[in-house]
Every structure is written in structure tokens, then in C-alpha cells.
Amino acid sequence: MGQTRDRRPRGAAGPAFSRGDHSRFGRWFWTIDKTLLLLMLALIAAGITAVAAASPVAARRLSGGNVQLDDLHYLYRQLQWVALGLPLMLATSMLNIRQLKRAAVAGTLLCLLALLAVPFIGGGTNGAARWIQLPGFQLQPSEFFKPCFIITTAWLLSLKVEDGSLPAMQISATLLAMALICLIAQPDVGQSALISLVWLAQATLAGLSLTIIGLLAVVGVVGLVLAYHNLGHFAARIDKFVSGSGDTSQIDRALDCFRAGGLFGTGPGEGRMKFRLPEAQTDYIFSVIGEEFGLIACFMLAGLFIALVVRALLLAMEEEDPFIFLAVSGLAVQFGLQAMINMLVNLSLLPSKGMTLPFISHGGSSFLAISLGAGLLLALTRCNPFLKGRPWAKGALA
């Protein structure tokens, strides 16, 4: 018998998924940080499970009259968002640094325009206008603004690191101020505080002086005092949190879920306290997890977020490029802070903020925006295994 011929095309470097595979997907597969990717996929899977548990609550609350929703209505919707969000995350993770910067700057400007338009054409609940109604979809511009702004800020601050004479810090602060004005007008104090803290973290890493940090802290406190005296909805939440007076039914019901669940939970679909929760599929989904899967599952979920943030920060610390260092750090801080705020609200350790739990809560804008941020983080941390410390995404082959 004759020898078997190699059927690979001339010039092919090796079989698919081998380190010699120089296709676009092959380069992506060998340069992506698989630990980060697995952590994100684990959180998405946990989110699908949590929404399945919370879906009957929201479906039955909204059913009535001519509208009758299936108990798993919100699970089906979440699966649709995951089907859109996963490709978005993976496609974004394939961008090179130049493409990533351009997309982020364009996204920041577009989201600013949308934020300016929200008070005039937007809708919402509880006296807040935060969404723009599109066919079959409510767009919340502030969600998409966060990852785009973090990348844009990282780019501007990296220019200052390279050339101290550039007014990069001032330009970044101006963009922040414009966004805060738009967010307070909605009003959305929670998102305003989150974006401000992420910007402050990035600016501090870029060399912002302690004196200016102190002044900004004073400005932040003054801003909260003004918000308390001028925004009745915000003041009511603070009063309920500080004094425990007024209508505290939301947080009382959330704590009842944790008490009912104990360490190991009541079991999937066996929760009863969850049917008293407001926004069980979004803001208070962590309480649903506490009831049906127990405190151990809550600690495991918090551990996944901690692992994601720590992994991202460790990768950032190894990076010599100031832009990538600041961008990865900013995205890690955003994920960590947003998750922490949501969990602390559910545990009555912070006033209610109306902020979703990343990867976990049901929602279109929130999940797609988190997927975008996750894709950006994966793109920024791609690294050639043969050239440690040099991001593969910088090169023309990315």
C-alpha cells in the first residue's frame, strides 16, 4: 500500500485548534485567557438558573386581565438575551486594540447623545426616566455607556502617562461631568456613583494627586447632600435605610428569603417567600438565590465574582502598556463594585439602588452591556503564549 498523503493545503501550519493554526479563530483560541472566559460562562450559567427560579414571580405578578404569562416567560426571554449576548461577547473579544479604542470612543459619544435625549423621549418607573423605547426592546443608554466610557477614560489617561503636558485628565473629567449631569436628570444616583467611583479608581492609578482625590471626595459628599434635598425618591430611600421607618417592605421581604433558605436553600422551585419580592428577576434576584439555593450558593456566587476581579487585576498588574493596565483595572472595578452593591442592597447593608447583578439579573440592556464589557475585558487580556507580557491583540494578526 502506498503512503497516505497529507491532504492539508499547501502552507497550512497545522491541524485546527493546534498552536500552529493561524486562522482568526485559531489565534483567538490560543491567545484568550481561558480562566476569565470560564468564569464568565459560569456566571452566565448561574444567571440562567437564577432567572428560572425568579421567572414565576414576575410572570404571575404581571398576569391578569387579557395578559397571561407562562411561569417561565422570563427564562425564555433571558435565553434569548444570552443567545444575543454570547456572540456579542465573543465577537468583541476578537477585536484588536486599535479597533477596540475606536469602537469605545464612538460608543461613548453615541451614549452621551442618548443620555441627553432620555429626559425628553425616555420612559421609566418610580419617577425616573431611564429607557428609550425601541420596537420590542427598551434601551438603557447608561448601561452601554459604562464599558465604553471606561475604555475611553483609559485611553485618555494613558496619554497623560506618556505625555504629562496633555490635558487628558481634564478631558476625561469633563466627559464624566457631562454623563453625571445626564444621569442625575433622570434621576439615577446609583449609576452616577458607580461611574464616578470607577473613574476615580482609574484616575488614581494614572497618578491623580491625593489633594485632588480629597477635593473630589468633598465634592461627592456635597453632591449627595444636594441630591438628598432635591430628589424626593432618593431622600425616601436614604431615610428608610438610616431610620428603618416608613415603607421597608422591600428589604424586609428580601431578608425573609435569606432566612427561609438557610444554608442549603429550600430547593429549586420550592421557594415561597420569593413571591412577595418586588423585581425578583432583576434587582432582588440575589434574594431568590438565597431562598432556593441557600447561603452556601450565595457565597459561591460571590466567590465567582471575586475570582473574576482578582484574575483581571492580576493580569493588569503584569501589563506594561498603561492603556491596557487602566482599561482592564477599570472594567474589573466596575464588575466588582456593581456586584457588591447589588448584593449589599439585598442584605440591607446599602440603600436600594435599582442596580442589576452582572451576568445574573434578567434584562436586555443590562445583559448585553455586561456582555460587551466582558468581551472588551477578554480582548484586552489576550496574550501570545510564546511572547509573555505582550498582548497578542496589539498585533496586526489579532
Domain unit count = 1
The total count of helices amounts to 13
Helix and strand element order: HHHHEEHHHHHHHHH
Q: What characteristic shape results from the CA principal axes? A: globular
Give the integer mean of the pLDDT values: 84
Whole-Å distance between the termini?
43 Å
Q: Which strand order spans the largest sheet, edge to edge or round the barrel?
A: 1-2
Q: Helical residue percent?
A: 55-70%
Q: Could you name the ranges where pLDDT drops below 50 across 5 or more consecutive residues? A: 1-14, 387-391, 393-398
Which radius of gyration do the C-alpha atoms yield?
23 Å
How many strands in all?
Answer: 2
| Structural class by helix and strand composition | mainly alpha
Biggest beta-sheet profile: 2 strands, antiparallel
Strand content: under 5%
Question: Would you give an account of this structure?
Answer:
The protein has helices at 24-31, 34-62, 73-93, 97-121, 141-162, 168-185, 189-205, 210-230, 232-243, 249-261, 285-317, 322-346, 364-380; strands at 132-134, 137-139. The chain has one domain (31-394). The chain has 13 helices and 2 strands, in the order H-H-H-H-E-E-H-H-H-H-H-H-H-H-H. Helix 5 (141-162) runs antiparallel to helix 6 (168-185). The chain has 398 residues and is an all-alpha fold. The protein starts with 23 loop residues before the first helix and ends in an 18-residue tail after the last helix. Strands 1-2 form a two-stranded antiparallel ribbon. Helices cover 66% and strands 2% of the residues. Strand 1 and strand 2 (137-139) form a beta hairpin. The relative contact order is 0.15.
